[in-house]
Amino acid sequence: MDEELYRRVKAVAALRGIRVKDAFEEALRLWLSVKPEFHALAEEVEREAELNRRAFEKLREELVRSHEGFYAAFAGGKLLGVFPTLEEAAAAIERVGASQGVIEQLSAARRGRAEVELGWSLVEL
Amino acid sequence: MEPGGIVARGYYSSAESPPAPVIPLVVYTPTSRRRVEVEAKVDTGFSGTLLLAFEKYFELGLQLYERAEKASGLVAGGYRVELRVSRGVVELEGLRIPCNIYTTIFARRSLVGRELLNKFKTVLDAPQGAVILEAGHR
Prior knowledge:
The complex is a heterodimer. Chain A is α+β, with helices and mostly antiparallel strands. Chain A has 4 helices and 4 strands. Chain A is elongated and about 55 Å long. The mean pLDDT of chain A is 88. In chain B, 8% of the residues lie in helices and 50% in strands. In chain B, a hairpin with a 3-residue loop joins strand 5 and strand 6 (79-92). The relative contact order of chain B is 0.29. Strand 4 of chain A pairs parallel with strand 5 (71-75) of chain B, so a sheet runs across the interface.
């Protein structure tokens, strides 16, 4: 097992006043709670998403130079077009019958990964 | 929207003990071609706008309008989960609000969070079992 991961599990378990064994059981219950068909769906969509992300990264600088502020739409690992509105970009993806799509508003400023607090309501064990 | 005008009426769901505040809302795709009705739990511990149950997110087809970058969800206790981020429109009694919509494979329920709630005056009247969102005064 990844030592750093184990160290973090141990630290959080200590903070919560539970044993590492209980933390593992909790994690396994959570893992089992996800329907198998959801795993399959998530994997398929993620494969497509990865292709679209790569296509976006490859073209990002060129698109920002030529169309800053516009919306770029990607599906099937390809650029579908650049559009003045989100609605038009979304419609372009709907037209091609893709299983996943990426829409990015073109900006020279790179956003870091957004962080969202979730509280506890998300998880039902 | 007039200040004090009611934007949404919810209720306390007895599916949880103690009962939890819930708001019914409608979520649309960015093109408004598809919609889904959702009962979202009011969760002030959630800093985002709307987190949809995984099933609802895909029922609506929101995977078609995702951002390139996923978001990082910080769960109480220090856990992190990856969140898919899409775009949609939330409708509350006729008022339409374009916003980011999140999900994760672990999401079995829908949550409405501070980024949306903070646009309004939120009244949690547990004794009366009522939840009311009102347009705020500026």
